[in-house]
Task: inverse folding
């Protein structure tokens, strides 16, 4: 008890100083924690922005690649369509030459009146008339061009809808 007698007054006089030192240490500790937390948040935000930029660059590259693919596909299909159109036109000319195709009438020329249709039940006739079916060369060309266009459009649609395999970045 004797030792406590002199220690107690000393503690009473030093208590405010001890409290201030402990408070200063706590403030320093929490200020350091706040500064480290702010640095971590700044680093995290910078990393996020860098990842966003990288993702945007990668998405733009993929989009440009798709645009180039579709542009090349359109060019190939346009070239193929032009070739098929020429082939269809040549086939129409051959058809017109081998079958009795009526030449296009002169502008302003009056045509012959068509005979009235013979009465017969609806449906397909048993036989064709002796002279056959006569169409104009322009009609043959128009049908050939529309058919070539339809076939080219179908081929293009099949190519566009075909699934593409996307390789990961850096893959061979």
Result:
């Amino acid at each position: 008890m004797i030792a406590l007698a002199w220690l107690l007054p000393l503690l009473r006089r030093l208590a405010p100083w001890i409290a201030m030192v402990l408070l200063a240490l706590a403030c320093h500790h929490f200020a350091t924690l706040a500064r480290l937390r702010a640095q971590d948040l700044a680093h995290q935000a910078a990393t996020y922005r860098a990842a966003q930029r990288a993702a945007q660059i990668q998405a733009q590259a993929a989009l440009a690649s798709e645009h180039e693919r579709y542009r090349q596909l359109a060019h190939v299909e346009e070239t193929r369509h032009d070739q098929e159109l020429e082939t269809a036109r040549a086939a129409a000319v051959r058809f017109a030459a081998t079958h009795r195709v009526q030449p296009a009438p002169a502008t302003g020329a009056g045509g012959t009146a068509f005979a009235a249709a013979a009465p017969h039940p609806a449906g397909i006739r048993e036989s064709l008339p002796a002279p056959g079916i006569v169409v104009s060369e322009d009609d043959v060309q128009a049908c050939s061009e529309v058919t070539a266009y339809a076939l080219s459009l179908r081929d293009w649609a099949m190519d566009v809808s075909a699934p593409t395999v996307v390789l990961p970045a850096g893959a061979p």
